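> forwarded from #structure-qc
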């Protein structure tokens, strides 16, 4: 079942249906549904799909490229030993036919090098694109390669007509994938998977989301048991520095500044460290955040682990892998769900879901038509002043700052939340004395009558309203 992606499908179809030859570039983490999107957009139009092979040398890639093309055209394409010869051989096989050419897992085809990129650009411009009704789609799961070595390369710079960075489903799409589930299970699945379609497919077939996680994450033959290694190695090999950065951030759910992160990972704070952070962020594993009142050049940046499933893996699976693989304790996940550590993790995961839906929250509050900057706001403790961490705030052009407090819990939320928010409001007032401060509560769970009757919050948003 294909769900959502309407905007992306329509944009890709426009490129495919255009009279002029077009180049489209699509990237996103593995399991995110890139190939399904491409097939949906192509429909019944003639297409050639060629997929790269992971960690295979150039000659093997070229042979596989020609073999896949030969099978789909049902005729033998001559052997070649260079990419230029292989691409020109394909040009002869294409003849004059209109066709969509899809090069999937392009970073593997290219072996992460620029040779194929440059050669492909030459062949596309001088041969393939000269025939009407042709579209070239380059698709890859390694974002740093697709953006740096292709999109921003001298070969394709300014020549890519459509770029799609495919990300996980939002709540509305997850709800459609899990159409027979109640909202509590839908929100759980979003917190665990970050809306990755493949993971949602696995959970959709289970009797319940918790039982699905038990089966796929905490059983020796579970799909998720080896998934982290599959994803991480395909992106970064066995790079120890990358592993250390991820593990340190997994232990720091609210993020770390650059210097603190370098210290805790014992990695020198230089160019290599910057490149590691860039590569991890391009992959979608981590995110950088700046306070909403600071420009993009600020040094006041925090990094945090932003891939929900990878966060779940490090919180609950990594240290238990031996036990899981040996088929130890049954119902391990069911037991973990009762712990304080799990409830704390779920609270942070809910905050990340809300941050992903910041535009929807703005619409629910009623200021979506007003220009605003959105993000966290934080200050480290300093002499005479306490530190503060606000995860979601809107700095609006109408001179209002909207502060969002996000809570997920099963017990009724009491007046302590007002005290907690008021402290943050007071710090904002000191920093922005000319702004009005508006407090909003986004909650999944019951609220005490005291909080409802207080009238303190400008708006209380129940989490299921994010589906509207």
């Amino acid at each position: 079942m294909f769900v959502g992606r309407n905007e992306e499908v329509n944009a890709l179809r426009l490129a495919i249906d255009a009279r002029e030859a077009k180049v489209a570039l699509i990237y996103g983490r593995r399991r995110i549904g890139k190939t399904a999107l491409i097939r949906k957009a192509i429909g019944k139009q003639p297409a050639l799909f060629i997929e790269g092979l992971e960690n295979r040398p150039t000659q093997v890639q070229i042979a596989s490229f020609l073999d896949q093309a030969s099978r789909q055209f049902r005729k033998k394409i001559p052997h070649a030993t260079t990419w230029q010869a292989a691409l020109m051989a394909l040009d002869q096989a294409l003849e004059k036919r209109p066709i969509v050419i899809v090069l999937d897992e392009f970073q593997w085809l290219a072996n992460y090098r620029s040779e194929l990129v440059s050669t492909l650009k030459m062949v596309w411009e001088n041969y393939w694109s000269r025939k009407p009704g042709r579209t070239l789609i380059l698709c890859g799961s390694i974002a740093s390669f697709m953006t740096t070595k292709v999109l921003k390369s001298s070969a394709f710079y300014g020549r890519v007509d459509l770029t799609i960075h495919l990300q996980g489903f939002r709540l509305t799409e997850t709800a459609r994938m899990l159409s027979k589930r109640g909202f509590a299970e839908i929100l759980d699945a979003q917190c665990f998977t970050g809306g990755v379609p493949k993971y949602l497919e696995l959970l959709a077939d289970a009797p319940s989301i918790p039982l699905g996680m038990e089966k796929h994450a905490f059983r020796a033959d579970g799909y998720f048991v080896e998934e982290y290694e599959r994803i991480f190695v395909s992106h970064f090999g066995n790079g120890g520095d990358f592993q250390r950065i991820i593990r340190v951030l997994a232990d720091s759910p609210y993020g770390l500044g650059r210097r603190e992160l370098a210290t805790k990972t014992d990695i020198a704070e230089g160019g290599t460290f910057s490149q590691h952070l860039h590569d991890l962020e391009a992959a979608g594993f981590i995110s950088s955040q700046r306070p909403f009142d600071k420009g993009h050049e600020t040094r006041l940046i925090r990094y945090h682990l932003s891939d929900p499933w990878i966060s779940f893996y490090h919180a609950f699976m990594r240290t238990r892998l031996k036990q899981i693989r040996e088929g130890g304790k049954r119902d391990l996940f069911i037991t973990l769900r009762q712990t304080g550590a799990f409830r704390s993790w779920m609270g942070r995961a809910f905050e990340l879901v809300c941050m992903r839906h910041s535009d929807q929250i703005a619409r629910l509050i009623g200021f979506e038509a007003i220009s605003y900057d959105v993000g966290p706001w934080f200050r480290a403790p300093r002499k005479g002043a306490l530190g503060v961490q606000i995860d979601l705030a809107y700095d609006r052009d109408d001179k209002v700052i909207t502060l969002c407090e996000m809570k997920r819990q099963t017990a009724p939320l009491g007046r302590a939340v007002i005290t907690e928010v008021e402290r943050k409001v007071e710090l904002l007032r000191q920093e922005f004395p000319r702004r009005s401060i508006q407090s909003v509560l986004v909650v999944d769970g019951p609220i005490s009558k005291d909080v409802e009757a207080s009238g303190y919050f400008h708006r209380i948003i129940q989490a299921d309203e994010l589906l509207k």
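QC bot note: The two ends are 22 Å apart (CA to CA). The first strand starts at residue 22 and ends at 27.
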